[in-house]
Amino acid sequence: MGKRIDMISFDGVVARNFSAIARTHEWIKHVSLFGARYLIFIFALGAMLWVWNRSQEQERFLRLFELGLSGCISWGTTLLISYSIGRLRPYQTFHFEPLFRPLIETPSFPSGHATIAFAIAGTIFFHDRLAGIICMGVALLVGCSRIGIGVHYPTDIFAGAVVGLVVAWGMHVLIG
């Protein structure tokens, strides 16, 4: 039990401190806001364009289907987990104003943004290792940005990454 409490304490300390840094350093604030609000959409569109341009003509729709299904299934899985656990977001727990509030209030664990970003990155990775590694970096930036604006803990991002990558792997095995 003591190790669990230590991890929860560590998670809270990292989330609070990272968010405090983002609120006090203007460039980190702007990067965090961009990463948390817009990067997931740019990333998803870029991934779709990458799949379209890199796939053989007869495989394009199958690869896009794999990418879309990975994102949808991972997001649905995240919603089931998050409502089952019901973890409050850092700004709710520690009573501070986040840089940006989620448009739809859902529980914190796991991060839906991180889940979808890592599902996208995983899907790309299973078809092109180098591009996938670059995409993992983008997915990590999405996740860190969500911590920076004060809406997630590091373990929310980690769990989202696990869910997204596992679903992407499953879709690759079934479809890929």
Task: Describe the protein's architecture and organization.
The chain starts with a helix and ends with a helix. The mean pLDDT is 89. The chain is built from 8 helices and no strands. Helix 3 packs parallel to helix 6, helix 4 packs antiparallel against helix 6 (112-125) and helix 6 packs antiparallel against helix 7 (129-148). The protein is an all-alpha fold and 176 residues long.
User: Which segments are poorly predicted (pLDDT under 50) over 5 or more consecutive residues?
Assistant: none
| CATH architecture verdict | Up-down Bundle
Determine the mean pLDDT: 89
Label the structural class: mainly alpha
User: What level of helicity do the residues show?
Assistant: over 70%
- The CATH superfamily is known as Phosphatidic acid phosphatase type 2/haloperoxidase
Gap between N and C termini? 42 Å
State the total count of DSSP E strands.
0
Tell me the Rg in angstroms.
17 Å
Shape: globular
CATH topology category name: Vanadium-containing Chloroperoxidase, domain 1
Domains (count): 1
| Strand/helix succession | HHHHHHHH
For the biggest sheet, the summary is: none
Proportion of residues in β-strands: under 5%
Treating each run of at least 4 consecutive H or I residues as one helix, how many helices? 8
What's the CATH class label?
Mainly Alpha
What's this, in brief?
With 176 residues, this protein is mostly helical. The protein has eight helices and no strands. This is Phosphatidic acid phosphatase type 2/haloperoxidase domain-containing protein.
Observed structural traits:
mainly alpha; Vanadium-containing Chloroperoxidase, domain 1; 0% strand
